[in-house]
Specification:
The complex is a heterodimer. By secondary structure, chain A is of the alpha+beta class. In chain A, 36% of the residues lie in helices and 18% in strands. Chain A has a four-stranded mixed β-sheet, with helices on both faces. The chains are: A alpha+beta, B alpha/beta.
């Protein structure tokens, strides 16, 4: 599965103010800053308020980051503290870029 | 059914939800605790999901909306499992009485740090609210929580989930894996302390026959059956037959029934007693099957129903053998007054055999039962297995006033020890020995009534003939 970071949809599913969801928001902010992607492109879904949307999309773990749409959606579970794959996806892997 | 299990005390301060599973409610003294967590733990294939699934589907069928949250199984597989035990989940789903949330984790997903159960509880909460449900099964949460980076986080999430279930006053069932290694201990043992009701499941192989068993480990605020209970999964669902359920609830013996054998009723003081158990024992070719089939032909001609369990012959073989003495069993079968089960003893374990017999009794509602021959029951695994099967089956019949006729292929001429050889003598009301004695260059068929409780029966040995119009017993004493 591939994700075009310049145009692809970015959805972050969080669960209210749950600690892991707060950490994920913070980590995604920093990641997008590094990648030069506007925060306005991020669609935040609070599962506590919109559980049906999570159910429809098959998102049962929070936090969860969904990149892209349709069959090629890339799903990343967790609070985004492990950044190796994310850096690779968003081109923010400093060592690789050096 | 009256509760006769001495190990099942009836004290309980807990409101309960009946499981609807035969036998399980007796073990649980009424059902699972309402508003509390019940834990089903066991290794693979022990029946955790099946028991939970059946319990939920039966509750939904009775009008209680339920949600099944599974982290392991596909929704289609669960519907298929349910169909296999005669439950139609799709219909219940259409009626908004049942919902499956298939929360299997996409194997291609990337894990990038810790997560929690907040999202899934929000989804569960919303689904329960839409249905108006108060009953939930959480299947295999370990498949989900095992993705967390450490065991402490996993424990913490399970504790949070438990608190959430209790706070919402949900009646919940959770299945978790329990390894047979290390004496059955598992990482999830700590859940045993959290749940109000804990049931451990396992399956063991003995003499190449596998038997599933369950044991209730704890039940806060309620008494429960403390034994280990074998169970089977049949096409009608899970069946548990608590061993002591079959104790001492027997009906008094009834009126005399015709034996169907000329001259025999008089020797027995009138015939077989309704609800009694009669054993025919003798060597090969002594006429055991002919005696019981004589009764079958006669009693079915009076419109009474007979369940015939044959461990040795097929229906066609039996018909062929019985044509020689002129016994016709087809009319009984055609009139649906006879049900014939031909079963290989080795085919399944004692519980499955017993469940098959109990199910046939429940569905067919026979007045009489024939088991031909109980000696073959030893091939169910062991002498103890044979005893277990026969004792529970005979007691089951006695509770229901069903007359039972058994045959036993004797291995010695010591008939007294043959009858007590399976330790069944206490439940056998009438014992009849059959033998072929050599005299003057020919075999003479003989029968004698070794015992017949409460009857003034003949104590003589009587010769008999098997003619082309049935058995004819002669009244004169030989000895």
């Amino acid at each position: 599965m591939t994700f075009d970071s310049s145009t692809g949809t970015i959805r972050l599913f969080i669960a209210g103010k749950a600690p892991n969801s707060i950490i994920a928001l913070d980590n995604l902010h920093r990641l997008l800053d590094r990648a030069g992607i506007s925060w306005n492109r991020v669609h935040i879904v609070d599962v506590m308020e919109h559980p049906e949307e999570a159910l429809d999309r098959g998102v049962f773990i929070t936090p969860a980051l969904l990149l892209g749409s349709g069959a090629s959606t890339l799903i990343i579970y967790g609070n985004l503290t492990k950044t190796r794959e994310l850096d690779s996806i968003f081109g923010t892997d400093l060592e690789a870029n050096a | 059914m009256p509760d006769a299990d001495n190990t099942l005390c009836r004290s309980s301060s807990v409101d309960k939800l009946p499981t609807g599973i035969p036998g399980l409610d007796e073990v649980l003294n009424g059902g699972i605790p309402l508003g509390s967590l019940t834990l089903l733990s066991g290794g693979p294939g022990t029946g955790k999901t099946m028991i939970g699934l059946e319990l939920l589907a039966r509750a939904a069928g009775a009008g209680t909306p339920c949600v099944l949250l599974t982290f392991e199984e596909r929704e289609s597989a669960l519907r298929r499992y349910a169909a296999g035990i005669g439950l139609d989940l799709a219909s219940l789903e259409k009626e908004n009485l049942f919902r499956i949330i298939g929360a299997r984790i996409d194997p291609q997903a990337i894990l990038a740090g810790d997560f929690d159960l907040k999202g899934i509880t929000a989804i569960l909460s919303s689904t329960l609210d839409r249905l108006g449900g108060k009953l939930v099964l959480i299947d295999a949460p370990d498949a989900f929580l095992g993705l967390l980076s450490d065991r402490a986080s996993e424990r913490a999430e399970l504790r949070i989930l438990h608190e959430w279930l209790v706070d919402r006053e949900l009646t919940s069932i959770m299945t978790v894996k329990r390894s047979a290694h290390n004496g059955g201990d598992s990482y999830y043992d700590f859940l045993d302390y959290m749940a109000d009701c804990v049931v451990h499941l396992d399956q063991r192989v003995q003499e190449q026959i596998t038997t599933r068993r369950l044991r209730v480990i704890k039940y806060r605020g309620s008494s429960y059956g403390r034994n280990e209970y074998p169970f089977g999964i049949t096409r009608h669902g899970v069946w548990i037959i608590p061993v002591t359920q079959t104790s001492l609830q027997q009906k008094a013996l009834g009126e005399s029934l015709p034996t169907g054998v000329a001259g025999m009723d008089e020797l027995m003081g009138g015939g077989y007693r309704r609800g009694s158990c009669t054993l025919f024992t003798g060597g090969s070719g002594t006429g055991k099957t002919t005696f019981v089939c004589s009764f079958v032909e006669r009693i079915t001609s009076q419109g009474e129903k007979v369940l015939y369990i044959d461990f040795e012959e097929s229906w066609d073989a039996l018909l062929s053998c019985m044509s020689s003495p002129g016994l016709k069993l087809e009319p009984a079968m055609d009139a649906e007054l006879m049900k014939f089960l031909s079963i290989m003893p080795e085919a399944q374990g004692v519980e499955e055999h017993l469940i098959q017999a109990f199910m046939a009794i429940k569905e067919f509602e026979p007045h009489h039962l024939v088991v031909d021959a109980i000696s073959a029951c030893r091939r169910m695994g062991s002498k103890h297995a044979a005893f277990d099967y026969m004792l529970r089956l005979i007691n089951h019949c006695k509770q229901r006033g069903i007359t039972s006729l058994l045959t036993n292929l004797a291995s010695t001429r010591d008939y007294g020890s043959e009858i007590s050889g399976m330790d069944l003598s206490s439940v056998i009301d009438t014992a009849i020995i059959l033998r072929n004695e050599e005299s003057g260059g020919e075999y003479i068929r003989e029968m004698g009534i070794l015992k017949s409780r409460g009857r003034n029966h003949s104590s003589a040995i009587h010769p008999f003939l098997i003619t082309d119009s049935g058995i004819k017993v002669q009244g004169g004493a030989l000895q």
